[in-house]
């Protein structure tokens, strides 16, 4: 698929476009739909309540989103996932709707995203500084999402240094989770043998060794995290030490946990993403202004989308059904330029008119779709990777 351009754009109704895509042809959907803050949204007028009366504001939004989420589910591959931004106006309803469309078992996370660190100062009440990203898998057993990152590993957490210069820390080989004990994990409760002078550890007795059984700090029986064969397979990664426990001095076994092992360490992503790590609305406005001007009031920062892209393989096919200012396509181009990936992004936008007299209108961009198109073309001019446009409602190649 490397012959495809990095970015493709189609102007039209995202529901029509999504339904034109082949089932299972998309790996990642990230999108930022209308937040339903009280203003009309471009897709609202075709949705009515079942009795023919106009649905309430929230009901109309849900009925606008439902078929689109169903179409997203259908185009996602087995390894695929949906990441969708939302704020407090519809977060609860969207979570319930996604549980209904994808299944509760497909829920992966609700991430708090700090995009406005100063907080919104207009209006009454609290200065809201966060939004959410809801994450759902198409098939949680096959989903390719790796919720970890190499960027968040702190070298200061590895205070020890081996003779060859490698950094490491000591972790108890004992499983510290009390859910795992000799009753629930019988095969992992067995004696090891260690010499606290030399540090040697083995699964069988040797000269100078003492028997070591896994115990919790209060002396109750515990279990090891490793099996006996693994202990014998990686003896250099274990050390026997004498420690001062709650009940006095005792001998225990520790794992040498290396900073760099098997191609690099990754750390699990937390579910709060601060603006210092992913950017803010202010930085997003600056990114867009640098390419096409100040023509969109609340774009998402590319750092947010790049973090999402970092949880998936570098060859994914990405779709953004509510492409807005084109942040997703921009982030895909940046990620490919950085790591040589072959990601491809299809951005979809409805030709919603920009406000008369707005910066976008004065810049000759009469619709939001025109903003998307202009940004993706500018991204290609600056970063390369290619940009193509499909006729409205045409299936992607």
What does this structure look like?
- With 397 residues, the protein is of the alpha/beta class.
- Helix content is 25%, strand content 23%.
- It is built from 10 helices and 18 strands.
- The strands form 4 sheets. A 9-stranded mixed beta sheet has the order 15-4-5-3-2-16-17-1-18, with helices on both faces. A 4-stranded antiparallel beta sheet has the order 7-8-13-12, with no helix packed on it. The protein has a 3-stranded antiparallel beta sheet with strand order 10-9-11.
- Strand 7 and strand 8 form a beta hairpin.
- Helix 1 runs parallel beside helix 2.
- About 3% of the residues have low confidence.
The residue ranges in which pLDDT falls below 50 over 5 or more consecutive positions are 43-54
Strand content is: 15-25%
Kindly provide the radius of gyration, computed on alpha-carbon positions and rounded to a whole number of angstroms.
26 Å
Major sheet details: 9 strands, mixed
Number of strands: 18
């Amino acid at each position: 698929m490397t012959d495809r351009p990095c970015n493709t754009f189609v102007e039209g109704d995202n529901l029509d476009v999504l339904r034109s895509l082949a089932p299972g042809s998309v790996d990642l959907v990230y999108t930022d739909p209308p937040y339903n803050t009280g203003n009309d949204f471009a897709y609202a007028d075709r949705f009515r309540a079942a009795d023919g009366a106009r649905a309430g504001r929230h009901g109309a939004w849900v009925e606008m989103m439902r078929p689109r989420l169903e179409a997203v589910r259908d185009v996602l591959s087995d390894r695929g996932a949906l990441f969708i931004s939302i704020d407090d106006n519809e977060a609860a309803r969207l979570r319930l709707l996604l549980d209904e469309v994808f299944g509760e078992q497909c829920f992966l996370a609700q991430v708090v995203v700090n995009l406005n660190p100063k907080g919104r100062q207009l209006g009454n009440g609290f200065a809201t500084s966060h939004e959410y990203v809801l994450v759902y898998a198409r098939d949680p057993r096959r989903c390719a999402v790796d919720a970890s990152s190499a960027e968040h590993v702190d070298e200061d957490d590895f205070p020890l240094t081996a003779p060859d210069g490698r950094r490491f820390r000591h972790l108890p080989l004992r499983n510290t989770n009390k859910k795992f004990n000799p009753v629930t994990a019988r095969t992992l409760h067995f004696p090891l043998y260690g010499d606290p002078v030399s540090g040697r550890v083995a699964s069988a007795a040797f000269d100078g060794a003492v028997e070591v059984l896994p115990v919790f700090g209060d002396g109750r029986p515990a279990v090891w995290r490793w099996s006996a064969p693994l202990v014998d397979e990686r003896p250099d990664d274990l050390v026997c030490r004498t420690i001062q426990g709650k009940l006095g001095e005792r001998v225990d076994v520790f794992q040498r946990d290396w900073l760099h092992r098997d191609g690099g360490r990754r750390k699990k992503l937390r579910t709060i993403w601060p603006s210092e790590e992913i950017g803010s609305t202010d930085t997003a406005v600056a990114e867009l202004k640098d390419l096409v001007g100040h023509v969109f009031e609340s774009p998402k920062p590319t750092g947010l989308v790049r973090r999402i892209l970092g949880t998936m393989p570098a060859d994914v096919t990405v779709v953004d059904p509510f492409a807005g200012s084109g942040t997703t396509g921009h982030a895909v181009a940046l990620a490919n330029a950085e790591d040589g990936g072959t990601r491809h992004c299809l951005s979809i936008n409805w030709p919603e008119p920009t406000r008369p007299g707005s910066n976008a209108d004065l810049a000759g961009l009469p619709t939001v779709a025109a903003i998307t198109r202009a940004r993706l073309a500018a991204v290609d001019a600056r970063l390369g990777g290619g940009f193509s446009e499909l006729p409205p409602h045409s299936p992607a190649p």
